[in-house]
Design brief:
Length: 238
């Protein structure tokens, strides 16, 4: 079977985590090859995220799609199932951000927003740092209605917070069983740690339950297919 791949949102390989003087590199993921269809039509003159309102928790049940999601495990593993809060972040076409002008509008999720809660703000200022591929809109995230963006790959900008993380919004909460051959890839020991692999539902459940409060949006990625968790990945974060 030829699997389709998509990313609701995942920390892309190479994102530097700069808080507290540390750095970490998330596990790499395949590029997205399918963007879910949406009936939403953008307003003329408004720059919107490419993934605006196009993904839902139901996508995780698709048997033909492997999905990588940043998640916070909220209840450990009980009876072979884990409950997680699932998150995403806004991404924009490079050309849209490069063509953005004062007087235009841009749509984005504010910190702590749910997936269907967006703001549609007028652009009053744009500052660009070409050396580091950064764009600050309306004074950046320190200001009301401000937004910071970073070039994530050759053709996509993503939101950015103080510590270089994406600006996450919550998709919702979902309970999913662990696959029998689920794999935990844990490189959270230190910035240079090689991933330690644990295989099997019972062993992975025991590892997660041993540290119930240390599986957060910033360090945890779930790989899901057909409603089951195939992999749990945890990285080091400051």
């Amino acid at each position: 079977m030829n699997l389709k791949y998509k990313i609701l949102a995942v920390l892309a390989a190479g994102i530097a985590l700069t808080a507290c003087g540390g750095s970490g590199t998330p596990a790499s993921t395949p590029a997205s090859s399918a963007v879910p269809a949406s009936s939403h039509v953008a307003e003329e003159g408004v720059t919107e995220p490419i993934n605006l309102l196009t993904g839902t928790l139901d996508d995780l049940d698709d048997p033909d799609t492997v999905t990588f999601i940043p998640a916070s495990i909220v209840s450990g593993v009980q009876d072979g199932k884990l409950t997680a809060k699932v998150f995403s972040y806004d991404r924009y076409k490079k050309e849209d951000i490069e063509n953005l002008a004062v007087g235009d509008k841009i749509t984005f999720h504010e910190e702590g927003a749910a997936w269907n809660q967006v703001v549609n703000d007028a652009v009053t200022s744009i500052e660009k740092n070409d050396e580091y591929h950064l764009v600050s809109i309306n004074g950046g995230m320190e200001q009301p209605s401000g937004l910071d963006l970073k070039l994530e790959d050759d053709d996509t900008y993503r939101t950015m917070t103080f510590d270089d993380y994406p600006l996450y919004y919550e998709m919702g909460e979902k309970t999913m069983p662990l696959a029998e051959d689920v794999v935990l890839k844990d490189s959270s020991a230190d910035p240079q740690a090689e991933a330690v692999e644990t295989t099997g539902a019972d062993a992975v459940a025991a590892a997660i339950n041993a540290e119930p409060d240390n599986w957060t949006t910033y360090n945890t990625t779930l790989v899901v297919q057909g409603g089951k968790v195939l992999e749990v990945r945890r990285i080091w974060v400051p």
